[in-house]
């Protein structure tokens, strides 16, 4: 283990549960899941109560996952309507603009509800119906959350695409979702730079089938003009302002889809992870309340983008279900300098801060000074998500932002899991830097070896989850077989996470990272296969192999081995060209950090690229290459090592 120092629960710390209560409640959640979730599900509003709690089988031949299946609800009634009577004037969203000199916006639950209802009516006017997929490609503005809730209000399935994705990536998602409607903005602003969202949407639509996209709703966020196609494009403001402020909520079955969200796997194209209404909301809201020890009135900031699952569950659904005040920040944590996050905390008197390790490392790179100017006294709880946090970054976050007083909740979870599964609970869990600690209620993690044998005690292995929880994904949109193959076939009868983990003597889990071909770059998930297929689509490239390597700020960097076509000469120009090509095909987050020219790649005799060897070369671990005698041509390894040493 890297570190075992314990940061015990501090005496007198405000908390919902102590350790003994957590233990008892956890034991109960496994002993009687039906009773436990029957009770927990009452935290949200049901239009029609459910009579059955759980109907699940993880068996490959009979896979099904159903929670609260005959219940009916509309998630927006839990997130909006029920707060209006007593808490309508509470602030739902505090929006902090990219440009520090601009005024922040404060939106109450009443205002949020009105605009969501109006937009929902507007979408209905445009022809959007229950079950239709609506793509949301927005900057970090309140209207992004409103668009998600407006879809939910009318039973449309939203598919949020991160605003940093390229037109090509956007088009792929629009087509895969068979989506006819897009909600976007003219432009976004990040770190002072304009992101041409509408232009990207136009380019994406051109890549799609001609009758794919029927309507585009465009928010004018920056005041600059953009091209509007008559008959297809609608101005967001005009559409919303003319609508009635009440929109009847569509009655949804608990297992009706709420949203799809594309995420990368180890093979093939990104898959549309599908979440449903009832179980997802119960689980998102419960985890938000317990993990962040949320109390009404707390100001809470989750610094993720709504384009990722963290934004869905912890900027929108979890917090709004709990009537929380959510800070939403348009920009980049280090803009215009490393003191920005601390200044935002002071400005809005934030109590709970939830941010990715990569952002912490970026802030840390400037030392303590930018943070020292701030008071940070409003903070009482810190959180991290997205990748393993290195103990050094953990301690820096604890000491500076936390003033050595705030617990850090290191929440491990995935797009597929809907919300956090392994996490400390503040006040209940002693902390160890770098460990996500213990399972949340109802979660039964286990470690298995390559053959699927369960391992006991302090050990390491593949991380699986033995039984279902309400927030679990239900299928891959349009490809149920892929759902079964990806998650339930490796270790039969269990959900396979794709992560490796260690468990220590105290039963604490330490996530060690992906055991498959998925990279985690600055907390963004990317499949090596996706980047490889973008590269080989370039006319100069014959073959490409992508691996991750440790990167100080990003966690993992992207290392690319490229074999050029015979008639192409390696040069700095072609290197740049390939980097730009990947940015265009996928987006800037997929930019290769290192490109190494490879006259040949290490392959088995059956032609499979041995990424294991390429990973070792990228990380200078030449003595751990393992058996290379089975390679079709073992001599390529030596030349790759030489080339790598020359490069780095
Ligand atoms: C929520 C989110 C999921 C993958 C996951 C794992 C890594 C997330 C982590 C963590 C260590 C944590 N991951 N949280 N690793 N400690 N606290 O990030 O979802 O984008 O789907 O990524 O991220 O490898 O499998 P997603």
Task: Give an overview in words.
This protein is globular. With 648 residues, the chain is of the alpha/beta class. The chain contains 19 helices and 31 strands. An eight-stranded mixed β-sheet has the order 12-11-8-6-7-14-15-24, with helices on both faces. 31% of the residues lie in helices and 23% in strands. The model has no long low-confidence stretch (mean pLDDT 95). Ligand 6R9 binds at residues 263, 308-310, 385-388, 410-415, 436, 497-499, 511, 513-514, 520, 525.
Instruction: Give the distance, in angstroms, between the N- and C-terminal Cα atoms.
Output: 29 Å
Largest pleated sheet: 8 strands, mixed
Strand content: 15-25%
Shape: globular
Oligomeric state, counting identical vs distinct chains: single chain
Radius of gyration: 24 Å
- Helical content stands at 25-40%
Distinct helical segment count: 19
Number of strands: 31
- Class from secondary-structure proportions: alpha/beta
pLDDT averaged over residues? 95
Low-confidence stretches: none
Question: Which sequence of strands runs across the widest sheet?
Answer: 12-11-8-6-7-14-15-24
Bound molecules: ligand 6R9
Sum up the structure in keywords:
Acetyl-coenzyme A synthetase, alpha/beta, acetate-CoA ligase activity, binds ligand 6R9, 7-stranded mixed β-sheet, ATP-binding, 8-stranded mixed β-sheet, metal ion binding, 648 residues, ATP binding, 23% strand, 19 helices
């Amino acid at each position: 283990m890297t570190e075992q120092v314990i940061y015990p629960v501090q005496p007198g710390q405000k908390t919902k549960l102590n350790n003994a209560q957590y233990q008892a409640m956890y034991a109960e959640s496994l002993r009687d899941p039906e009773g436990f979730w029957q009770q927990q599900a009452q935290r949200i509003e049901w239009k029609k109560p459910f009579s059955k709690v759980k109907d699940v089988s993880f068996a490959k031949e009979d896979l099904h996952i159903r929670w609260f299946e005959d219940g009916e609800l509309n998630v927006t009634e839990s997130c909006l309507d029920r707060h209006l009577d007593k808490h309508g004037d509470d602030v739902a969203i505090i929006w902090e603009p990219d440009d520090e000199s601009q005024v922040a916006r404060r939106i109450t639950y009443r205002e949020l509800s009105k605009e969501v209802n109006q937009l929902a009516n507007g979408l209905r006017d445009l022809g959007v119906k229950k079950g239709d997929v609506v793509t949301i490609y927005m900057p970090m503005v309140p209207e992004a959350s409103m668009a998600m809730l407006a879809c939910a209000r009318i039973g449309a399935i939203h598919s949020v695409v991160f605003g940093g994705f390229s037109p090509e990536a956007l088009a792929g998602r629009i087509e895969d979702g068979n989506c006819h409607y897009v909600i976007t903005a003219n432009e976004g602003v990040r770190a002072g730079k304009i992101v041409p969202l509408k232009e990207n949407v136009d380019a994406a639509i051109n890549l799609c089938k001609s009758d794919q996209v029927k309507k585009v709703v465009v928010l004018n966020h920056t005041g600059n003009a953009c091209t509007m196609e008559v008959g297809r494009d609608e101005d967001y403001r005009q559409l919303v302002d003319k609508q009635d402020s009440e929109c009847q909520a569509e009655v949804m079955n608990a297992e009706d889809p709420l949203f799809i969200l594309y995420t990368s796997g180890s093979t093939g194209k990104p898959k549309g992870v599908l979440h449903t209404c009832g179980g997802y909301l119960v689980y998102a809201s419960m985890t938000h309340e317990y993990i962040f020890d949320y109390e009404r009135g707390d100001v809470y900031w989750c610094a993720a983008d709504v384009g990722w699952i963290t934004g869905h569950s912890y900027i929108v659904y979890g917090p709004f279900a709990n009537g929380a005040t959510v800070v939403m920040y348009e920009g980049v944590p280090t803009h215009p300098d490393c003191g920005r996050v601390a200044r935002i905390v002071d400005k809005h008197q934030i109590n709970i801060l939830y941010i990715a390790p990569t952002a912490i490392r970026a802030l840390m790179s400037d030392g303590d000074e930018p943070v020292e100017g701030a008071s940070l006294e409003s903070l009482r709880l810190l959180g991290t998500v997205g990748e393993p946090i290195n103990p050094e970054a953990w301690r820096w976050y604890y000491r500076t932002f936390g003033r050595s007083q705030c617990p850090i909740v290191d929440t491990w979870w995935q797009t597929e899991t809907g919300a956090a599964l392994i996490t400390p609970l503040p006040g209940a869990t002693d902390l160890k830097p770098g460990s996500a600690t213990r399972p949340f209620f109802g979660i039964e993690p286990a470690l298995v070896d390559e053959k699927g044998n369960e391992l006991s005690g302090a050990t390491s292995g593949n991380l699986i989850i033995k039984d279902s929880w309400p927030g679990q994904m239900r299928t891959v949109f349009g490809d149920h077989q892929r759902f079964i193959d990806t998650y339930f076939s490796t270790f039969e009868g269990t959900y396979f996470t794709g992560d490796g983990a260690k468990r220590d003597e105290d039963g604490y889990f330490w996530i060690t990272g992906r055991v498959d071909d998925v990279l985690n770059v600055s907390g963004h998930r990317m499949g090596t296969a996706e980047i490889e297929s973008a590269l080989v689509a370039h006319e100069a490239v014959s073959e490409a192999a992508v691996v991750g390597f440790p990167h100080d700020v990003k966690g993992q960097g992207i290392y690319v081995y490229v074999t050029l076509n015979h008639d192409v000469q390696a040069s700095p120009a072609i290197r740049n060209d390939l980097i730009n090509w990947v940015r265009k095909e996928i987006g800037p987050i997929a930019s290769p950090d290192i490109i190494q020219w490879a006259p040949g790649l290490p392959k088995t005799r059956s032609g499979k690229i041995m990424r294991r060897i390429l990973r070792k070369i990228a990380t200078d671990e030449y003595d751990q290459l393992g058996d290379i005698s089975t390679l079709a041509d073992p001599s390529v390894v030596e030349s790759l090592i030489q080339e790598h040493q020359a490069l780095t």
